[in-house]
Amino acid sequence: MRVVFDTNIFISALVIPGGQTEKAISRITSGADTLLISKAIIDEVLSVLYNKFGRDIEAISHTAVFLSELGEMVHKTSKIRILQDDPDNRILECALSGKADIIVTGDKEMLGLKEYKGVKIISLREFLEA
């Protein structure tokens, strides 16, 4: 399956080791699913880690390399503005540009869409049960 993780999935995996999000990352590293990621998603993850969790520049640099090697880099083909939170629109852009099957998120507004142009939007629990 071609998957896009919302920023909140990455943040949980990086800040709370051993949680459910770590299982989602394991599905990617084992090759069970293909992660699609974009520069905008990586930038958002790094910004949150730096600004909200006080990670130092060295940790941020290691995270940037880890994320860029974890998935297939996608370059957006169109600009989307349907969700209130602009970083959430970057998730949709990555999913459409990379021809994703699903988006995994904990964001209530995004989950409320359920699907966007053929891309299913599911919770972490649903992803882990699939």
Quickly count the helices: 7
- What's the count of strands? 6
Note poorly predicted spans: none
Main sheet characteristics: 6 strands, mixed
**Which structural class is indicated by helix and strand composition?**
alpha/beta
Structure characteristics:
single chain, 130 residues, alpha/beta, Rossmann fold, six-stranded mixed β-sheet
Please give the structural blueprint.
Blueprint lengths: L1 E4 L1 H9 L4 H10 L4 E4 L1 H13 L5 H14 L1 E2 L12 H12 L4 E3 L3 H6 L1 E2 L2 E4 L1 H6 L1
Parallel strand pairs: 1-2, 1-4, 2-3, 4-6
Antiparallel strand pairs: 5-6
Helix pairs in contact: 1-2, 1-3, 3-4
Report on this model:
By secondary structure, the protein is an alpha/beta fold. It has one domain: Rossmann fold (3-Layer(aba) Sandwich), CATH 3.40.50.1010. Helix content is 54%, strand content 15%. The chain is built from 7 helices and 6 strands, in the order βααβααβαβαββα. The protein has helices spanning 7-15, 20-29, 39-51, 57-70, 86-97, 108-113, 124-129; strands at 2-5, 34-37, 72-73, 102-104, 115-116, 119-122. A 6-stranded mixed β-sheet has the order 3-2-1-4-6-5, sandwiched between helices. Strand 5 (115-116) and strand 6 (119-122) form a beta hairpin. Helix 1 (7-15) packs across helix 2, helix 1 (7-15) packs across helix 3 and helix 3 (39-51) packs antiparallel against helix 4. It is globular, with a radius of gyration of 14 Å. The mean pLDDT is 95.
